[in-house]
Amino acid sequence: MTSPAKPLAGLKVIELGTLIAGPFASRICAEFGAEVIKVESPDGGDPLRKWRKLYEGTSLWWFVQARNKQSLTLNLKHPEAQDILKRLVQEADILIENFRPGVLEKLGLGWDVLHALNPKLVMVRLSGFGQTGPMKDQPGFGAVGESMGGLRYITGFEDRPPVRTGISIGDSIAALWGVIGALMALRHREVNGGRGQVVDVALYEAVFAMMESLVPEFDVYGFIRERTGNIMPGITPSSIHSSADGKHVQIGANGDAIFRRFMLAIGRVDLADDPQLADNAGRDARRDELYGVIDRWVQSLPLDEVLAALRQADVPASRIYSAEDMFADPQFLARDMLQSARLPDGKEFRMPGIVPKLSDTPGSTEWIGPQLGEHTASILERLGYDPQRIAALKAQGSV
Q1: SS3 of residue 322 by DSSP
Q2: What's the number of CA atoms in the CB half-sphere (13 Å) around residue 72?
Q3: DSSP H helices in the chain
């Protein structure tokens, strides 16, 4: 039986991004069937190729971030390379870029030019502060977006400076908004007969959009949410606790019925039956008392016994997973979240599985991140360039 086509099969995507936000957005498209051509500088390509842990000179992250993509090298300062890009744009559905605003315009490749070449093109522009406003020309990485968007201010403990998350979460959130915006624009184009348009994603706005009730709480009450460590302010109990064997568990017992089951499970019938603790407001008012009780209970047992008791009581909880924990966990394995692939020398390794899970047209990994310029010749041949012309373009540094 023939497998159905992937949901984005037939879409052509050009990626002009580097590092994280732009490449992550196009990676999602590639995982679900879009043809993604990643345009890289012939001079080393995407810096991500050399970030973090390397395997025989190439980043392991690269093999994941660029999976299912084709690598085309173009020096966009050369007119011949710009002509190649324009020819690709004419047949593309989406172009994703994360240059600083104005860079493409200086190259003569701004929206007005590309839109004229292909009125149906959807252009996803990911930048620190967006394409407009007084800060648009300033450089802005994900860390800056997380800071300006409000995430860093509330992350950490109240008596210490703000801390960051352990990943570039701002870039990744921006990438997700970019894909959502692109699919919205395609929907408008295909269903409503609309033209292509620009999807303008600012990193700080991508983070800001995730900040829950921060805006109305300040506007109505002048309330500024502060750092609160591992607890979730206003929602009790929900925190991280340490076990007798020095491990850590997140317990979320903030539902009314869940809280009662939790207290009964740890032998605190008095708290389970206390009418003041029957709802979240009452529990939050006695937050310190409750967290003291839970801390003492968790500290008295090894983690496995804590988790077993919580499972028995049907209380949401999880150990704080390391990579080692994930590799041994049956849930990760059952959901194919640790997929096997092979490095260029044939060595088997694991990479993250595909998210989300589609029942009829799931995404997949067809190949790992390519070598720099691996597909340049084949792409140019498809565009009508003969081998002699391709060799000349390489010699002059255009590709």
Answers
A1: coil
A2: 28
A3: 21-31, 60-65, 79-90, 103-106, 111-117, 142-148, 169-191, 203-208, 214-221, 256-265, 269-272, 280-285, 287-299, 303-312, 323-328, 330-334, 376-382, 387-395
Q: How far is CA 200 from CA 30, 97, 179, in A?
A: 21, 10, 11
User: Comparing C-alpha atoms, which of 301, 306, 334, 337 is closest to residue 320?
Assistant: 306
Confidence of residue 2 (pLDDT cuts 50, 70, 90): low
The pTM of the full predicted model, rounded to 2 decimals, is 0.94
Active site includes 171? yes
Closest CA to 391 of 146, 80, 158, 112: 80
End-to-end CA distance of the chain: 41
Backbone dihedral angles phi then psi of residue 232, each to the nearest 5 degrees: -100, 105
How far apart (Å, rounded) are the C-alpha atoms in residues 13 and 17? 12
Confidence check: pLDDT of 1 > 60: no
Tokens 């559905």, located at residue: 93
Residue 70 main-chain phi, psi, to 5 deg: -100, 140
Which stretches within 32-157 are classed as H helix?
A: 60-65, 79-90, 103-106, 111-117, 142-148
Query: Which listed residue (46, 93, 171, 284) is catalytic?
Result: 171
92: three-class secondary structure by DSSP: coil
